Amino acid sequence: MIGTTLAEIRDHIESLASDDGEYYLVCARYGDRPVPASDLRFDTRATARAAAQATTQYRQALRRYDSQVPYYDIVACQAVDIRTRRARIEARRDSRSTDPAALAEPTVDRSSSVGRELVAFCHRVAAVVFETLSDHGYGAVEDAVMDAYFAHAETVGDPDELCLCLLESMAGELDEHLSVADQAELIADTAARLESPTDDVDPLDATLTALDRRGVIEGYTRSPYSIDLGGGAESVVVQISGYALEAHDGRLPVLPLTLELCRHYTERPARSIQVTAVDGGWRLTLGLGDVDDRNGLVSVPIDGAV
C-alpha cells in the first residue's frame, strides 16, 4: 500500500531508490527530471517503472494544491558512462553516413532553459512546503494559501507567472498564520525533505549560486561575514538583482532564500532578515546567530530605500 498523502508517496518512492542505481526518471517530451524523484536513482528498470508510476501519482495529488504542475510522460532511462556514450554516438554517425534516409539529430531550443528551471523550482518548493504543512497539521494555513492562490488565478493568465504567485501567496500566509519560531521549525523540516548538498562550498555562496542558476535571482554580491564580539551573532549583507518574486503590502517574500539557505546551512540557518530597497534590487542583512530581533523568515518588512 503506497498511501495517499504527498509524504507517504514520497517515502515510497525514496524506498525504491538506490545510491548507485543505473536508472533514473525523466519526462520523455521535455527531458525534465520530475519532482519528487529528480535526484533519485534505481537499481533495475522494473523498479524505476514502479517509481515512475508512484511519481505520477504524487504529481496528481500535488495538483490538488498546485494546479499548474506540468503533465509529464515519465519514463525510465539508463545512465551510461562517457566511454559508452561516445561509442554510441560514433556508431550513430557511422550509420547515418551509410544510410541516406537517416534522420538528422533533433535540434533542441534551450533559450527558455532558465525559465523552465525557475518553474520547476517553484513547483518543488511548493510541493515540499505543502507536505510539511500537512504533516504538522496546519490545515488552516493550507486552506489560506489555496484561497490566496485561487484569487491570483482569476487575474493572472500566464501559468509561469502563476507559479511565482503561488510562492508569494505561500510566504504571505505562512507569515500571517505562523509565529517566527513556527516558521523556523517549518523551514528546517521542509529543508530536510530536499536533497542534502554534497559539496564543501560556503553555504551562502552555494545558496546564491543555486538561486541564480534557477532564475530566482539574476545577480548578487555579498559581504564577508561579520561577528558581533559582544553577543557572538554572525551576520552578512547580500545584495540581489532581478529577484523573481514581488513585494506585497510593504513586505518582501524571502521563502526561497531562507529555505535554500537552510538546506545548505542546517547548523546555523538564518534567524533574522532585514530588507532594504536599493537601486535595481534588494539589500538583505542576514543574522545567522541567536538573534532576538526577528522580522520574519518567509516574508520580511521592507525598511526603505538607500
In short:
This protein has 306 residues and is an alpha+beta fold.
Characterize the structure shown.
By secondary structure, this protein is α+β, with helices and mostly antiparallel strands. It has two domains: 1-104, no CATH class; 111-306, no CATH class. It has nine helices and nine strands. It has helices at 6-16, 45-62, 82-98, 113-136, 139-153, 159-177, 180-192, 203-213, 255-264; strands at residues 23-27, 74-78, 219-222, 226-227, 234-241, 251-253, 272-278, 281-287, 299-305. The protein is globular.
What is the number of strand segments?
9
SSE order, one letter for each helix or strand: HEHEHHHHHHEEEEHEEE
β-strand percent reads: 15-25%
| Broad shape | globular
Helix content: 40-55%
- Integer average pLDDT: 80
Low-confidence stretches: 81-89, 96-111
Number of helices: 9
Count of folded domains: 2
By secondary-structure content and strand pairing, the structural class works out as alpha+beta
Report how far apart the termini are. Answer: 57 Å
Q: Please summarize the sheet with the most strands.
A: 7 strands, mixed
Rg (CA only): 21 Å
